[in-house]
TrEMBL record:
PROSITE patterns: CATALASE_1, CATALASE_2, CATALASE_3. Pfam families: Catalase, Catalase-rel. Residues 1-29, 358-384 are annotated as: Disordered. GO terms for cellular component: cytoplasm. It comes from the Bacteria. Residues 1-14 have a biased composition (Polar residues). This is Catalase. InterPro entries: Catalase, Catalase_3, Catalase_AS, Catalase_clade1/3, Catalase_core, Catalase_haem_BS, Catalase_immune_responsive, Catalase_sf. Residues 13-397 form the Catalase core domain. Its EC number is 1.11.1.6.
Amino acid sequence: MTKNLDNSKNNLTTDAGAPIGDNQNSMTAGSGGPVLIQDVALLEKLAHFNRERVPERVVHAKGAGAHGYFEVTNDLARYTKADFLGEVGKRTDLFARFSTVAGESGSSDTLRDPRGFAVKFYTEEGNYDLVGNNTPIFFIRDAIKFPDFIHTQKRDPQTHLKNHNAIWDFWSLSPESLHQVTILMSDRGIPATLRHMHGFGSHTFKWTNAEGESVWVKYHFKTEQGIQNLTSEVAQTIDGSNPDHHTEDLFNSIEAGDYPAWTLKVQIMPLEDAANYRFNPFDVTKVWSQKDYPLIEVGRMVLDRNPNNYFAEVEQVTFTPGNIVPGIDFSPDKLLQGRLFAYGDAHRHRVGANSHLLPINRPKNEANNYHRDGAMRSDSNGGSSVYYEPNSLGGPTETPANKQASFAISGMADSVAYDDDDHYTQAGDLYRLLPEDEKTRLVANIVGHMMPVADEAIKRRQIAHFVKADPEYGARIAAGLGIENV
């Protein structure tokens, strides 16, 4: 008996902890008889197997991740009271996940697609999630267009194939996408590895200091490995031999002690500048000029530990831009405002209402609130403590000092677009900045992607946008598609 107890950690058990006597043979009525329903170990094993996959993410389904830390290298307390940013040398544990946007969980790593760049900081004031991409902008600027945009990137409901007509029809009718389309079709559309790309918060956020003074801020993670990209031809070759190239590279580099790192820098804009800046600073299809608002170093992100279990950590980690900490607030960016709901709601559907209790999502300082019950509640569920607020029984109360900083708003409540409809200047500037060889590859990538579009009207409508950005840009694409009189 003592020997059996000592080795109990090696006993194969049911989920209830009961030892399993035979895991090779089902319990049957005689050696050739039918299987008995009383074989509960068999039933549990098959039932669990049927449920081993949670629904994959609607977007960013294919991803890789790693643990690491963030270390502050520059004191920016004059801009934000966020504790994890408040002291040079301070380290904060984190988990980062990188992903493609449109592909399924089994799709190729080397597709031409933006890459998600999400970081969860386990701060002493709660989890802070910075959920961005490897581009500083996005295709759309209002969350109401997001489901439609993603539908165009997914599979056709009849053929179950990617639909180039849908993609370019949507883009040609959404000129705000032109800047991001130009980046996507450029060399940076396919990074060589996840380590060799920049990351961005993309949206505008607000920082507030201990005195209650606020500024607008944008985040830039600059890879210390240098930018490296793949041509379409090389990416296709890798896709054919190793569709998990990026996932493998990240894991192997960390396993070998070659820890990837990024330097975090920010752009700071005074609140009063927003009203008069030449581009709407909350429009996520636009960038702020670094000549106007130079990059300021904040610290370094280093990834130095691989997950022990992909499902438990990479697949079940949940990110939402709604996870903020004191000193960091939101902006009136319309796409960001929609994401504040959509991301948390997606996780409540996909992983469950209590996904925050999973180890990968659990904050260091533990949640302390009146949320109760729900599927997979794995803690004490509040025990016998008070379960409502306000109360006179000593339960947790709000801390007014941690309210989000206020900002002025005005105008009529209405469904309206941003005032700025200049979708062409920044896209044209980007095209003109590219060296000639990169311009050539950009044009070739666009032409190759538009070739399958059957409707010439869609091609002409999109070419008109390229022409408005830069006449040469549009003319070269038209020539490549064999379209005249644009």
